[in-house]
Fold:
Amino acid sequence: MQRTIQNELGEIKKQGLLRSTRVISGRQAARVMCNGLDVLLLCSNNYLGLADHPALSAASIAAIQRYGTSSGASRLVSGTMELHEELERAVASFKKSEAALVFNSGHAANTGIIPALVGRGDVVFSDRLNHASIVDGIILSGARLVRYPHNDYRALSHLMEKHAKGRSLIVSDGVFSMDGDIAPLAELAEIKQRYGALLMVDDAHGSGVLGERGRGSADLCGVGNDVDIQMGTFGKALGSFGAYAAVSAELRDLLINRARSFIFSTALPPSVLAASLAAVELVQTPEGDTLREQLDANTRFFRDSLADAGFKLPEGSTQIVPIVIGSAVTTMQFSEALLAEGLFAQGIRPPTVPAGTSRLRFTLMATHTHADVAAAVERICHVGRRLGVV
Ligand SMILES: Cc1ncc(COP(=O)(O)O)c(C=O)c1O
Structure:
């Protein structure tokens, strides 16, 4: 019997996995209008509030006035504008790397970089909880995928002993996007050295937030110089859009020649590049430090209060705070009930997380007030008790 689209949608719904979009009106701020309700936003990656910062908007508007609205072509045709290279120099200086290359998104970076580095006959060692775009990049590369248990560097070492062949690449999220814990990057750097492998860190959630001046998770772990590819995104803490790879000059040349998502896609427009540039500058100023301190204070208070109320939080210290519920249906009931109480926290279900680990993934922002966070905790506890989650 032919599989119809209606049947397929029915099947997704039966499993409690049907997804739909919720619409935000107005700006991405700490409070938003969502489906017509005034709610506290607790699931945005706009961690420092820069998506709503006047310096980024002003830079973007000025870039449109000076350069227009589009790059008009891919980077290797006529799409490389002064702003692309200015941003790349700023990122290299921020990350203390020899060079940097800008990509159109984090997904495009991961699906471009990995196949540029490895192919048939090579092996990629990938943390079991790595982001889907890393997995997509590995599949596209044709290299063998060896998954190691989450953050288990001893198991990684054994697996490398057994399977390392051709060129080996170790790849890990810096901060795990759905779990909020940090990869053991010092240990991964030691292992990559021992096996002569390449090490790539996806720092989508650490860029701008962790380490000195927000330089990221590798800086926090003291291994900024040992990570061959530090990939990061501009669309989260940096309040803009797109991604970068901080690499050696040689690797940059290779990516320009081999990364298909870089070669075969129209380059980012001036408005986006200018906002990213303003953000990279801003996170390194005292204002950036203040925003990180506010984010950290909100995170500590939120984590401690939920733990005191009896919620079992997974190991972690970052602004990403999951409450793992298990059932996809209960997770969505929790999310709906919170929305009715004025809190927008999205339920996360498979395939984004492994089956049986559906969760509410809360994210804190520097622009939440202490009163916002305290009121949120109270409501989460109230709804959690009502649903028997705590
Ligand atoms: C760890 C990680 N890597 C990559 C991406 C993709 O980045 P982008 O949204 O810029 O495509 C995301 C999230 O979107 C992510 O969480």
Observations:
- The pocket of pyridoxal-5'-phosphate is lined by residues 105-107, 110, 131, 133, 173, 177, 202, 204, 233, 235, 243 (CB under 6 Å).
- The domain at 61-283 is CATH 3.40.640.10 (Aspartate Aminotransferase; domain 2).
- The chain is about 45% helix and 15% strand.
- The chain has two domains: 17-47+286-386, 61-283.
